Amino acid sequence: MTGIAIAFLIIALLVVWGGLVASILYLRRRPEAGEYPPGGEDDHREDEAPIEHDT
Amino acid sequence: MANQAQRVGAGRPREQWTGQVGFILAAIGSAVGLGNIWRFPGVAYENGGGAFLIPYLVALITAGIPILFLDYAIGHRFRGAAPTAFRRLGGRWLEGLGWFQVMIAFVIGLYYTAVIAWALSYFVFSFDLRWGDDPAGFFVGDYLQVSDPGFSLQFVPSVLIPLVIVWLLALIVLGAGIAKGVQRANVVFLPLLVVAFLILVVRALFLDGAADGLNAFFTPNWAALGDPNVWIAAYSQIFFSLSIAFGIMITYASYRKRRANLTGPGLVVAFSNSSFEILAGIGVFATLGFFAFQQGVAVDQLEGLTGVGLSFITFPAIVSQMPGGPIFGVLFFGSLTMAGFTSLLSVLQVVSAGFQEKFGLNPRQAAVRVGAVSALLSVLLFSTTTGLLALDVADQWANNVGIVASAVLTTVLVIWVLRKGSELRYHLNAVSTFKLGGLWIVLVGVLAPVVLGYMLIQRIVSLIVDGYGDLPSWYLVVFGWGTIAVILLGALVLTVVRWGFDPERFLVWPPYPAAGAGERMPRADAPDGPAGKEDRT
Question: For B264, which of A27, A36, A55 is closest by C-beta distance?
Answer without folding.
Answer: A27
